[in-house]
Amino acid sequence: NRRKKKNKKNRRMKKNKSYQIAFDGLLAALTAVFGYLAIDMGFLKLSFEEFPVILAALMFGPADGALVGGIGTFLYQLLRYGLDVTTVLWILPYILLGTFVGIYAKKHGFVNTDGQIRKAILGGEILVIVLNTVVIFLDAKIKMYPVPIAFASTLWRIAAAAVKTVLFGFLTPQILKKLSKFTGNVRKA
Does position 45 have pLDDT exceeding 90, yes or no? Predict the structure, then answer.
């Protein structure tokens, strides 16, 4: 009887792992699509590419968040810009976003309240703004274009991040509650 219970538990864990791998692949693809379809105004790029990274991190933790961010952003960079000297620099903020949000979710046992989810999103958006600003500076130095042009969009990027934080903060808890049957993470109301 014990052996049957153990086998049943192992099958359930393998099934959950399969769901996790499938979701990670789907979210990495969404990250690439959202990045590729971004509205690029030269001085400002409007995109939702961080949203799937945040979902992966909140559902499965820092490793999955980092993988989704890294793979999805790499694919998007490759499709939109090709390989470049600074490609890795542009991928790094999304790897660190997934890691940061995943650590936060794991710290709270993946049963984050709506408020905790919103704090993780806010912290992640701030992290991406800071890291992207550093990447813009390094990109300007490496590719030798004027640094002031690189920072001209900072206020616009902050405003866009504020809007995305509110939007993601509203949508994410609802989506995570719907997906909890696949992830096994019980979400608090």
Answer: no
